[in-house]
Write a structure and sequence with these properties.
The chain is of the alpha/beta class. About 35% of the residues lie in helices and about 30% in strands. It has 11 helices and 12 strands. Helix 1 runs parallel beside helix 3 (about 65-70).
């Protein structure tokens, strides 16, 4: 199981949101580059980065910071936020990221998603931000009536490498991830899932790992690391 420590970037700083609400934002003292170096030195292999400015503006914004992270560490980086075009994807791939995460654009334009998967083999992930089973778009500002499971079934032969499944009701709350719904979803689709949102303790991570579910590829951990609820050393022992 892959453990992805998270870096969400807003205004050049590391931040975390609660339930995707930009009015409930916490800024942390370490810069995104310093945080990435800390993760690398601690023994992680992967990192999850979200360009929140990009998500809001509909285009990549924090490329200079990400380029600096790539120069400083050897982590496999998956990045999302504001990625809407093939050119956006290409620029991130050329910069050296491992996976590019499509969110809003993937849902609104499945032809674009399929084209991207064909052009960038095994490099495209899809982020689904879900509230009560339905997908939300545009930095969680726009709620749709599209069910997550129906959408995944629609795209599961495109070649999407993984689904980042975020439960908005859980994200940033530290009340435990939505394991039940993710396990249920994993039994109905073919694309590997990564759990995101709500991780509160090392026990949550152990619980996910103990599932030994081949279709749950990993888990993203953010706020609980920043707030000191989970020790980085405890996480790296589970890699």
């Amino acid at each position: 199981m892959i453990i992805f420590p998270a870096i969400d970037i807003k205004d050049g700083k590391c931040v975390r949101l609660i339930k995707g609400d930009f009015n409930k934002i916490t800024f942390y003292k370490d810069s995104p580059v310093a945080q990435a170096i800390k993760y690398s030195q601690s023994g992680f292999n992967d990192i999850h980065i979200v360009d929140l400015d990009g998500a809001l503006q509909g285009k990549p914004v924090n490329s200079i910071i990400v380029k600096e992270i790539i120069k400083k560490v050897k982590l496999k980086i998956q990045i999302g936020g504001g990625i809407r075009t093939i050119d956006d994807i290409n620029s991130w791939i050329e910069m050296g990221v491992d996976r590019v995460i499509m969110g809003t654009a993937a849902v609104e334009n499945t032809d674009l998603l399929e084209t991207a998967c064909n052009k960038f083999k095994n490099k495209i992930a899809v982020a689904l931000d879900v509230k009560d089973g339905l997908i939300a778009l545009s930095g969680w500002k726009k709620q749709t009536n599209i069910s997550a499971i129906d959408f995944i079934k629609k795209i599961q032969n495109f070649g999407v490498s993984r689904i980042i499944y975020t439960d908005i009701n859980k994200d940033g709350t530290k009340k435990g991830p939505n394991i039940k719904d993710t396990v249920e979803l994993s039994s109905k689709v073919k694309i590997p899932l990564v759990i995101s949102g709500g991780v509160s303790s090392i026990e949550d991570i152990k619980k996910i790992k103990s599932l030994n579910n081949s279709n749950i590829e990993g888990v993203i951990v953010g706020k609980s690391i920043y707030d000191g609820d989970i020790k980085i050393s405890d996480l790296t022992e589970l890699i």
